[in-house]
């Protein structure tokens, strides 16, 4: 690794193959073995990174080749490399899946960094045919190196022997690192947006320890870690301007199980720009700090806690007081819904929210809204001047009962540039939308 931090990417042919399990097990093993490790997640995700942080004891940072500027990616790599021996990066979906057919994939991160790919193959319904999958993935892009393979959900020693023999014949240069057996104890509960949040897992440390033990027992960990390649020098110290301009000098940030979807890189960027971050818990009925000149409500699962939030009068009163004193108040996705007048839960019950925006949302009639978004500010706001461009993503099941009248926060496009029209609302210095912002555009 030439004295620099080494990195590797855990990827797979598709979602659900076990790359999160392998990543978490490796991170926990490194922590147990006193290996200085950092982690990254490709693409727009909040849930997996929280599991990474629990496994490693370090914040997990996002690497998004579609949504992030080169300068933001470089700064993130610099931060990941600081005082770390190893970076473990978990891919998104399949190795070559991205925002479009040709952009935004895990493979793009592999090509940009030179990090080798460890392919996790779900082998529960195949044997020698798995070798053809490995061969195809190894040859698909010349600028991406598949260096090792781990088989998951194997049926036993004989199954692993057939998988290994066939793969060694097809791709002799790829290291066969081992195979994890089928084990119900190595699965995580899921919800409609993916895994249940790390903070809600009843025995997360126990799960992580079991996963690390299984990986150590069935995978050649020294060889796996030895495959890591030197991380390219990022240039700069990572302290350059962050993804988003600070909303204020003292920013109250909602942070609990209902508002957990904040990118560490965004918060770190605000701190690096000199802003003070003041966490508070709406679920604990804490109001934003009375001296804050900005309030940020990130996304999360407020619909699961709607009755509690509606009854937390100190929290809702504190939001209204912040808006009354002309503080900037900004909500994303779940935070946007809480800024509205009401939220209808999945059982049809309605719960009054802050009433700062003319918005009513419902989970009684769920509809998936998913995809990358280009977003352009429609007017001057605490986020920036009209015309400022951002990139982000949208992922929710809420339907809008009514939205407006009020000016829109953004005009939006999808990843291909197709217009999606207006998005979000602005009322004075209060604004929000369903878009999770990742980075601004130059």
Protein described:
With 442 residues, this protein is of the alpha/beta class. It has 2 domains: 225 residues, Rossmann fold; 191 residues, 3-Layer(aba) Sandwich (Rossmann fold), CATH 3.40.50.880. The strands form 5 sheets. Strands 1, 2, 3, 4, 5, 6, 7 and 10 form an 8-stranded mixed β-sheet that branches. Strands 12-11-13-14-24-23 form a 6-stranded mixed β-sheet, with helices on both faces. The radius of gyration is 22 Å and the shape is elongated. It starts with 5 loop residues before the first strand and ends with a strand.
How large is the count of helical segments? Answer: 12
**Beta-strand proportion:** 25-35%
Mean pLDDT: 94
Q: What characterizes the major β-sheet?
A: 8 strands, mixed
User: Which term fits the overall shape?
Assistant: elongated
Task: Determine Rg (CA atoms, Å).
Answer: 22 Å
Number of distinct beta strands: 25
Structural class computed from helices and strand pairing: alpha/beta
Q: What percent of residues adopt helix (DSSP H or I)?
A: 25-40%
CATH architecture designation of the largest domain: 3-Layer(aba) Sandwich
* Number of structurally distinct domains: 2
Question: Which CATH C-level class of the largest domain is it?
Answer: Alpha Beta
Instruction: Flag low-confidence runs.
Output: none
Distance between the termini: 33 Å
User: What is the CATH topology of the largest domain?
Assistant: Rossmann fold
**CATH superfamily label of the largest domain:** P-loop containing nucleotide triphosphate hydrolases
